C-alpha cells in the first residue's frame, strides 16, 4: 500500500500541472512526516530532535530534493562563473604594454603560463550553454510561457547593469569601445550593438539562443538518441573539423566559398546550438571515480597544448620543427577544441556533483550558496576587473614581478579576489527584494 501511494504521487509530480505537482509533493512530505514520527526506518535522517514538526519535515524534504537533483547543476554554474573571471583575468596577461613590461611577451615562458590558463578556462561559456540545454530542452512548455520566464529573468538585469557600466564610463571620462563619446543616443546605440562592455556579447548570443530554444526542445524530445548523436557529429564537423581542413586545403586548393556554407564562428547561434544539445544528451551520464581521474588528467594535458607554439619559437632551427608546425596547425586544433574540453569538464563536474560526500559537505553548502549569485557575478565582475588591473600595473613594476612565477601566482589569485568581490556585491544586492529583481534575480 505504501509503495502504491509513492508511485501514484511520483506520477503526479511528473505531470505538467504546477498545482498538481505542488500538492503531490506536499502530500508526499506529509506522508513522510507521519511515518518518521513513529518509526526509525529509511528516513532516519529526518528524525533529528525529540519533536516532529510537519513543517520541519516538509522543509527538510525540499532540501533533500535540492541536494540530490540540482547540486551538480549548481557546481557547474559556480565553476563556469569562475572560469569566466579567470579567462578575462588571463587576457590581461596575454598581450599589450603591461604584459611586455612584466617579461610576458609573445613566446616567453610567462606567455605559456598565460596560454595555459586561457586554454583551461575556455570551457566557461560552453559549460553555461550545456547546463542550460540540460535544464531547458527536456521541458514541455508553451512558447510564450518559455519566453516570459526566461526573458523576464535576463533582460531587466542586463539592461540595469548596462546602465551601471555606462554611468561608470561617463564618471571615469572614458568612451565606448569604438571610441564614441558617451551620450544618450550613443548609449542606446551601444546597448543595441553590444559595445558597452566586451563580456556582454554572451547576453546577445543567449537571447538569440533562447529565441530558438522552444523549437530545439521539440526536436530534442521527439528525436531518437541516434538522431541526436548524428546531429552533434555533423555540428562538430562543421564547427571544428572543417575549419582545420579549410586551413590545410588553402595550400593546394581554395575552398573558401564552401566555407560560407558553414557559418559556425564563435558567438553565433549556430555555434552555440551544439553545446546546448550536448548538455541535454550528456546530463544523465555519470562516470566512475577511476575515469574521473583520467578525465581531469586529460583536461590538464589538453590545456598544455600551447606548449607546442612555445617549443616552435624556442627552437626554430630544430630538425623536428616541422613536427611542431604540424601539431600546432593540424593536430592540436582538433583534439584541443572547446567542444572536447567542454565535454571533459562537464563529465568531471557532473560526476563530482553526483557524489553524496561532496554535496553534503561544507563545500557543497558553499556551492549551493554561490549558485544563485552566478548570473549576477557574470554581469558585474568587469567592475572589479579594471581597478584590479590598475593595481596590477603597480605590482608589475616590482623587479620580482618579471618572471613566469609571478604570472602563475597572480592570475588565479586575482581571479579569486575578483570572483568573491563580485559575489559579495551580488549577495548584498539580493538581500533587498527590489534590488534583487532589478540586478540579480
Describe the structure.
The chain has 441 residues and is an all-alpha fold. It has 2 domains: 2-39; 69-439, no CATH class. It has helices spanning 2-13, 18-36, 54-69, 71-91, 97-101, 109-120, 124-136, 143-171, 184-193, 201-222, 225-249, 256-259, 269-282, 289-303, 307-314, 321-335, 338-353, 356-359, 362-370, 374-380, 382-396, 404-430, 433-439. The longest helix has 29 residues, at 143-171. The radius of gyration is 25 Å and the shape is globular. Residues 1-23, 33-54, 60-68 and 96-103 have low confidence and may be disordered.
Brief digest:
This protein has 441 residues and is mostly helical. Helices cover 74% and strands 0% of the residues.
Number of domains: 2
Largest sheet data = none
- H/E series: HHHHHHHHHHHHHHHHHHHHHHH
Average pLDDT, all residues: 76
Strand content of the residues, in percent?
under 5%
Features:
single chain; 441 residues; mainly alpha; 2 domains; 23 helices; globular; disordered N terminus
Secondary-structure blueprint:
Elements (H helix, E strand, L loop, with lengths): L1 H12 L4 H19 L17 H16 L1 H21 L5 H5 L7 H12 L3 H13 L6 H29 L12 H10 L7 H22 L2 H25 L6 H4 L9 H14 L6 H15 L3 H8 L6 H15 L2 H16 L2 H4 L2 H9 L3 H7 L1 H15 L7 H27 L2 H7 L2
Amino acid at each position: 500500500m505504501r509503495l502504491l501511494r509513492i508511485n501514484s504521487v511520483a506520477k503526479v509530480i511528473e505531470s505538467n500541472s504546477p498545482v498538481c505537482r505542488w500538492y503531490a509533493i506536499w502530500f508526499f512530505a506529509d506522508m513522510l512526516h507521519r511515518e518518521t514520527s513513529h518509526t526509525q526506518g529509511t528516513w532516519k535522517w529526518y528524525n533529528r530532535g525529540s519533536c516532529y514538526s510537519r513543517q520541519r519535515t516538509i522543509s527538510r524534504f525540499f532540501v533533500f530534493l535540492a541536494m540530490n537533483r540540482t547540486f551538480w547543476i549548481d557546481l557547474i554554474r559556480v565553476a563556469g562563473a569562475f572560469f569566466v573571471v579567470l579567462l578575462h583575468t588571463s587576457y590581461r596577461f596575454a598581450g599589450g604594454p603591461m604584459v611586455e613590461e612584466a617579461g610576458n611577451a609573445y613566446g616567453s615562458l610567462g606567455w605559456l603560463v598565460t596560454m595555459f590558463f586561457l586554454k583551461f578556462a575556455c570551457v566557461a561559456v560552453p559549460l553555461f550553454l550545456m547546463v542550460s540545454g540540460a535544464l531547458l530542452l527536456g521541458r514541455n512548455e508553451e512558447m510564450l510561457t518559455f519566453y516570459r520566464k526566461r526573458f523576464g529573468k535576463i533582460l531587466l538585469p542586463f539592461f540595469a547593469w548596462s546602465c551601471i557600466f555606462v554611468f561608470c564610463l561617463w564618471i571615469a571620462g572614458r568612451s565606448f569601445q569604438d571610441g564614441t563619446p558617451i551620450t544618450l543616443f550613443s548609449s542606446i546605440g551601444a546597448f543595441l550593438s553590444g559595445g558597452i562592455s566586451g563580456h556582454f556579447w554572451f547576453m546577445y548570443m543567449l537571447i538569440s539562443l533562447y529565441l530558438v530554444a522552444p523549437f530545439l526542445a521539440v526536436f530534442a524530445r521527439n528525436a531518437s538518441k541516434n538522431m541526436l548523436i548524428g546531429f552533434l557529429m555533423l555540428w562538430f564537423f562543421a564547427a571544428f573539423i572543417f575549419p582545420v581542413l579549410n586551413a590545410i586545403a588553402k595550400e593546394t586548393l581554395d575552398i573558401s566559398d564552401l566555407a560560407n556554407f558553414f557559418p559556425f564562428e564563435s558567438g553565433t547561434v549556430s555555434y552555440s546550438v551544439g553545446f546546448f544539445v550536448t548538455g541535454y544528451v550528456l546530463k544523465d551520464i555519470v562516470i566512475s571515480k577511476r575515469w574521473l581521474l583520467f578525465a581531469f588528467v586529460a583536461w590538464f594535458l589538453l590545456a598544455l597544448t600551447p606548449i607546442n607554439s612555445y617549443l616552435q619559437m624556442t627552437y626554430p632551427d630544430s630538425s623536428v620543427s616541422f613536427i611542431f608546425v604540424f601539431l600546432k596547425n593540424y593536430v592540436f586544433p582538433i583534439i584541443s577544441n572547446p567542444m572536447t574540453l567542454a565535454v571533459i569538464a562537464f563529465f568531471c563536474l557532473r560526476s563530482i556533483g553526483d557524489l553524496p560526500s561532496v554535496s553534503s559537505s561544507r563545500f557543497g553548502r558553499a556551492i549551493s550558496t554561490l549558485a544563485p549569485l552566478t548570473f549576477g557575478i557574470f554581469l558585474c565582475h568587469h567592475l572589479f576587473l579594471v581597478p584590479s588591473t590598475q593595481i596590477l600595473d603597480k605590482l608589475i613594476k616590482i623587479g620580482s614581478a618579471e618572471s613566469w612565477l609571478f604570472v602563475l601566482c597572480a592570475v588565479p589569485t586575482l581571479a579569486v579576489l575578483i570572483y568573491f568581490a563580485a559575489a559579495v556585491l551580488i549577495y548584498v544586492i539580493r538581500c533587498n527584494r527590489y534590488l534583487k529583481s532589478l540586478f540579480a534575480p
